[in-house]
């Protein structure tokens, strides 16, 4: 991120920063996928990774804690989707166990932060 940009509500959220940092990881992981997967599993992995960060950002820009919470649940669902896609890619031989384990560890951290933020917002409602 360019530090000269104006501050946005989601910039201060660790879950958004980690999700934002995961997107290039997802793209890198899919570069080794076979060409026939370019528009299938690779695309799904990239879209799900992008969805996490975009839903956190969109929710943070909403007017109410309830709306924000709804978008955080969507983001958390995308994290769960990513977990399954990564395991499937490993099973199909597109990723190594080490690659999958490292990526899932990052996603587990993001999911934990999302859960904590959801609980915090729900307590305020």
UniProtKB/TrEMBL annotation:
The record's annotation in Gene3D superfamilies points to: 23S rRNA-intervening sequence
Q: Which InterPro entries match?
A: 23S_rRNA-intervening_sequence (IPR012657), 23S_rRNA_IVS_sf (IPR036583)
CDD domains per record: 23S_rRNA_IVP_like (cd16377)
- Which range is the signal sequence, renumbered to this chain? none
Q: Which PANTHER family match?
A: FOUR HELIX BUNDLE PROTEIN
Matching NCBIfam families: four helix bundle protein
Name of the protein in its database record: Four helix bundle protein
Species for this entry: Hymenobacter psychrotolerans DSM 18569
């Amino acid at each position: 991120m360019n530090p000269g940009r104006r501050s946005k509500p989601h910039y201060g959220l660790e879950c958004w920063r980690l999700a934002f940092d995961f997107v290039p990881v997802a793209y890198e992981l899919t570069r080794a996928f076979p060409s026939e997967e370019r528009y299938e599993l690779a695309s799904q992995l990239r879209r799900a990774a992008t969805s996490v960060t975009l839903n956190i950002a969109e929710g943070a820009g909403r007017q109410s804690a309830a709306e924000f919470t709804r978008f955080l649940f969507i983001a958390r669902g995308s994290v769960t989707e990513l977990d399954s896609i990564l395991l499937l890619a490993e099973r199909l031989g597109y990723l190594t166990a080490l690659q999958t384990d490292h990526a899932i560890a990052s996603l587990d951290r993001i999911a934990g932060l999302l859960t904590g933020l959801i609980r915090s917002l729900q307590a305020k409602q």
